[in-house]
Amino acid sequence: MFSILSQKIVRNTKKDYYIVQRQSSAMYREWKYGKSLLQIAEERVFAPVLTASFILKEHGLTKRQFKGYIADLPSIKDKRLRDELSEVIEEDFIYSPQGIENQKHRGVFCEDQIQNWLDARSIEYMTEEDRWNAGRHLIFYSMRSWPSMVFVPTG
């Protein structure tokens, strides 16, 4: 279920990204007049961390500074900003540092499951590292001798 919900959220985020980004100036004004970062995100039904990044870019923060703030909340001197970013991070289970870490672990778990499945059936494959070391892209295709591997040179 979580995987399906994550995919839906990411799909909606991609669809609405530029629409919400164009509202950055208006969202910044709302924030300056006292509305919280999370309230602004919830009103737009958009990822809280991304909404906060748009607003704080208008505030003058670079992407690097924003990522630094998200990674190290205690370093933020402004109490309101620190508290609101903490709230945003807690609510966003996709784009927060913890959400990204969880996605990474799920990806590694799934890759391990696929590797075990292929190994159990003696199916040849290449890891991503093998593929890049070979300098070629790997394409699986099914004709008569599935699974066959075809190497297509890049570039």
In short:
By secondary structure, the chain is mainly alpha-helical. The protein has 2 domains: 2-98, no CATH class; 124-155, no CATH class. The chain starts with a helix and ends with a strand.
What does this entry look like structurally?
The chain is mainly alpha-helical and about 160 residues long. The chain folds into two domains: about 1-100, no CATH class; about 125-155, no CATH class. It has eight helices and two strands, in the order ααααααααββ. It has helices at about 1-20, 25-30, 35-45, 50-60, 65-70, 80-90, 95-120, 130-135; strands at about 135-140, 150-155. A two-stranded antiparallel ribbon has the order 1-2. Helix 2 (about 25-30) crosses helix 4 (about 50-60). The chain is elongated, with a radius of gyration of 21 Å.
Strand order of the largest sheet: 1-2
| Low-confidence region ranges | 140-146
Largest sheet: 2 strands, antiparallel
Tell me, briefly, the overall form: elongated
Strand content: 5-15%
Global Rg: 21 Å
> SSE order in H/E notation?
HHHHHHHHEE
**Straight-line N-to-C gap:** 39 Å
Integer tally of domains: 2
Helix proportion: 55-70%
Q: Taking all residues together, what is the mean pLDDT? A: 85
**Number of distinct beta strands:** 2
Q: How many helical elements?
A: 8
Helix/strand/pairing category = mainly alpha
Explain the layout of strands and helices:
Blueprint: H1 2-21, H2 24-32, H3 37-44, H4 48-58, H5 63-71, H6 79-91, H7 97-120, H8 128-134, E1 136-141, E2 148-153
Antiparallel strand pairs: 1-2
Helix pairs in contact: 2-4, 3-4
